Amino acid sequence: MDAKTKDLWVFIETREDGSPCNVGLELLNPGRMLADKQGGKLVGAVVGCQTEKAVKAAEEYGADQVIVVEGEAYREYSTDAYTAALYYLMEKYAPTTMLIGATSVGRDLAPRLSCRLNTGLTADCTSLDVDGETGNMAWTRPAFGGNLMATILCPDHRPQLGTVRPGVYKKQKPSGIGKPAKVIREDFAFPIKNIRTRVLERMREAAGELVNLENAEIIVSGGRGVGGPDGFQTLKNLADVLGATVGASRAAVDADWIGHSHQVGQTGKTVSPRIYIACGISGAIQHMAGMSGSDYVIAINKDPDAPIFSVADYGIVGDLFEVVPALTDEIQKARAL
Known about the structure:
By secondary structure, the chain is α/β, with parallel strands linked by helices. It is 30% helix and 23% strand.
């Protein structure tokens, strides 16, 4: 497919009630910069049912234009209906680029859409840029088991498609008052009888409902240095006084010291809290890929040469079982004043 415009699209994923998922609004932030660099509009693509909340949010977070396909067939996500709707839109408007959140929905939708459009797909990106002259996106993602970061181009096919991990970018409303977005509603009715899958039941992991790492403002995270499941209680004590969420490295999760829903990193969740406290985490590139968006990183480790100190804003060389309780006590004293 040839691009007819220089527009950059962001897929605004919706929930069953029509409200937007965070990742689409997060992607409007880099989308604004990328669209400006390549000289096109920033467009929010919304597919769902009762989408008023999603459309309004896309406008508030900076979209120049919002294109909507709405109907009962799109109340619940299905590969058939959503692929058909987005394929119809992209064939009609032919943008040069589309960003999709690397959620369970995005990871299912994007490969199907790329095949339908006969174009490439770069999955699980952690950084984005664009060449203003050629319009080629530079998609950066972990490669070779997370041992290096690869930057991938798709110079010969359009549109360029990529999925981006939730939490890599922060939701950010543009400063000042811009022009209201132009909302275009397309009438594309996908026959419900042609949807080949149905959601029969939803079952949530109990711990997964309680762990919201992506939206946490403060995370206290533990690694191999925690020593075992009992060691996480020390971190939980600190998290409780800070109002923080407990995270973990892959090593701690693989050792069954804590559930997978707490995992931060390439094979876990990507986070961008205000404060990330890494306790007993050496700093493997796979882990740092998941927390590099943190505003401030505090590292506590006995090894002064641990790689985590290279990205830390503040570092404490010491035994976490001495440092963390002392830190917890001092915070409690300060809050009691």
